[in-house]
Amino acid sequence: MLIATTEAGRVVKKPSKPVIGTMLANLHRDDAHLVLERVEDGVEGSWYVQVLLRDDNTYQLKYRDGVAAEHYQTRTISQEKVLTAMLGWAAGKGDWRDAFMWNNIGSQFGAGEAQQGG
């Protein structure tokens, strides 16, 4: 199941494309991040894509594929590209990452987290 959560605590289970778009468009200084998380029974690890609206009005986009070693980030000024990526991730499309250059940030997370898978 897909769950969308904002910094302000708004949680939407099984969000539609328009809801995800509205949640992204409504990001602001006091509610600056949005997380889309895939939660499935029997699947270990953390699977999510998240965006942070930074103070300089750029978007920091991150995703994690199950374990800490598979944690990546990028930045962009384009809300449209962020929305396209988030919707592509939510739909399970294989090419959703292609519009960005990604940096692996998995080494920033502790070994304990890597072993726990989340």
Quick recap of the structure?
By secondary structure, the chain is an alpha+beta fold. It is 24% helix and 32% strand. Strand 4 (46-53) and strand 5 form a beta hairpin.
Structure overview:
The chain has 118 residues and is an alpha+beta fold. It has one domain (2-101). It is built from three helices and seven strands. Strands 2-1-3-4-5-6-7 form a seven-stranded antiparallel sheet, covered by helices on one side. Helix 1 (17-25) packs antiparallel against helix 2.
List the helices and strands and how they pair.
Layout: E1 2-6, E2 11-13, H1 17-25, E3 33-38, E4 46-53, E5 59-66, E6 71-76, H2 79-91, E7 103-104, H3 111-116
Antiparallel strand pairs: 1-2, 1-3, 3-4, 4-5, 5-6, 6-7
Helix pairs in contact: 1-2
Strand content: 25-35%
What's the number of helices? Answer: 3
* Residues in helix, %: 10-25%
Specify the overall morphology.
globular
Q: Going across the major beta sheet, what is the strand order?
A: 2-1-3-4-5-6-7
Name the helix and strand elements from N-terminus to C-terminus, one letter apiece: EEHEEEEHEH
Biggest β-sheet description: 7 strands, antiparallel
Question: Measured on Cα atoms, how large is the radius of gyration?
Answer: 14 Å
**What's the number of domains?**
1
Oligomer: single chain
Helix/strand-derived class?
A: alpha+beta
State mean pLDDT (0 to 100 scale): 90
- β-strand number: 7
Could you name the ranges where pLDDT drops below 50 across 5 or more consecutive residues? 112-118
Give the terminus-to-terminus CA distance: 17 Å
